[in-house]
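I am hoping you can look over what I have pasted underneath with an eye to the fold:
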Amino acid sequence: NAGKATLVANTAGVTQFDAAVGTTSLAALSTSAAGSTQINGGTVTTSGVGGGSGAQTYSDAVTLGANTSLTASTVSFNSTLDSAPTTTKTLAIVGNVQFGDATGSDSVGAIDKLASLSVSGTTGVAKSATGINTTGDQTYTGAVTLQDGNAATTYTLDSSVSGKLWFKSTVDGSNAGKATLVANTAGVTQF
């Protein structure tokens, strides 16, 4: 039944999804910090319709082996996020997203860039996730918050092939005068 089953994938090895997850939506999904996760099936869907949180929490390093759409109340990446080695994959998040958990290094596309990134809801970027790297567009429909932890922090959003960096709502730091935003593209940056 939609929104009733919660999946907890707990391994120090690899969690690998080779097909769509949540065709009948899960209530929530989480992975443990010790291993890694490969999303190769294209879609992961969670929903609070059955009384669950509807959240997706990836506590380990994530790689995308296919162009991917994640649908959830909130998707949290508590470690790194990259395309699979030597590839560039698109990521569409339908819902809110949290990049980083303020510990370690949680950058996006630092090793293998995403092809593009779009977020329909709000975006939180922790002080541990100071780089978001794509070859193409980055589109942020909801408010973006740079969670600087009350320390001077520089956040670099980079499109290496002249993609559009599009902020459709507000962009703020958590604390006045602490967060620096570097929007790096040879294309258009639109606020």
Q: What stands out?
A: The mean pLDDT is 96. The first strand starts at residue 6 and ends at 9.
